[in-house]
Design brief:
alpha/beta; globular; 7-stranded parallel beta sheet
Length: about 270
């Protein structure tokens, strides 16, 4: 479980759900929330990895449970929300993290076959999950964080569907903030830069070596000249979920080493 460097327990008595919580940014966020006292539902399609995440959190003294969800399947989304509602009387924190990335350039039409599944998971699915969980969130109020991306601001060759979806996340976050404020629910987004997650090293012949290489090799893609760790994104997410951000809603925080803010554009295109 990710250590809490400040020894705080900002989420004691709170319940949280993290979609895509079995790996990467989602897992780091689930671990951080549990380390600060929350009971965390890890919602994921990969049941084996979700079980591992739950076991790790519990072994570290935290509280977590797995709940299955396939954001591309409306029935699965509804079942996920129903299962949570049957378990807890209120949900205080929601992290819409799960997404799907497939590449294809506009010119060659390689994106066409990916459009439906990417948009169902990356936009329709998490909006529907939020809608289904809204009654639980309204019970005591709380906070939502949606995961956007630097791509939603920069645009990148071969990734237009994913980047368009991540731009839509920013717009939808603003709409949710306006619609949910009367219920005492704040809604914000985080736009990560180049984060070293399983997406980038799991399929490599030597995943551990590739992960180490990505973490230690300098990059010119941002001002800080290094890639980000998922725990750094988790820190920003948990800040926005906490009462420390009590007067912040409808905004997006860029956690990208200065890439978007300094208009570095496509310098250091993602491998």
């Amino acid at each position: 479980m990710t250590a809490n460097p400040h020894g705080m327990a900002r989420f004691d008595g709170k319940t949280a759900l993290v979609s895509g919580g079995a790996s990467g940014i989602g897992r780091a966020t689930a671990e951080r929330l549990a380390a600060e006292g929350a009971h965390v539902f890890i919602a994921d399609l990969n049941t084996a990895m979700a079980d591992q995440a739950v076991a790790q959190i519990r072994a570290a003294g935290g509280s977590a449970a797995r709940v299955d969800v396939d954001l591309a399947d409306d029935d699965s989304v509804e079942n996920c929300a129903r299962e949570v509602a049957e378990t807890v009387p209120a949900l205080h924190l929601l992290v819409n993290n799960a997404a799907l990335l497939r590449q294809g350039r506009i010119e060659d039409g390689g994106w066409i076959e990916n459009w439906e599944i990417e948009t169902r998971v990356g936009l329709r699915g998490w909006v529907m999950l939020t809608q289904q969980l809204l009654p639980l969130l309204k019970t005591e109020g709380g906070a939502i964080v949606n995961l956007s991306s630097e791509g939603g601001y920069l645009g990148r060759p071969g990734m237009w569907v994913y980047d368009a979806i991540k731009a839509a996340v920013v717009s939808t976050t603003k709409t949710m903030a306006q619609e949910f404020t009367p219920y005492g629910i704040r809604v914000n987004a985080v736009a990560p830069g180049w984060v070293v997650t399983e997406m980038h090293f799991a399929s490599h012949p030597d995943p551990a070596a590739r992960k180490k290489e990505l973490e230690e090799t300098p990059t010119d893609s941002c001002l800080m000249q290094r890639r980000c760790g998922p725990e750094e994104i988790a820190s920003a997410i948990c800040f926005l979920l906490s009462d420390d951000a009590s007067y912040i809603t409808g905004t997006t925080i860029h956690v990208d080493g200065g890439r978007v803010g300094m208009n570095l554009g496509n310098l250091g295109i993602l491998e």
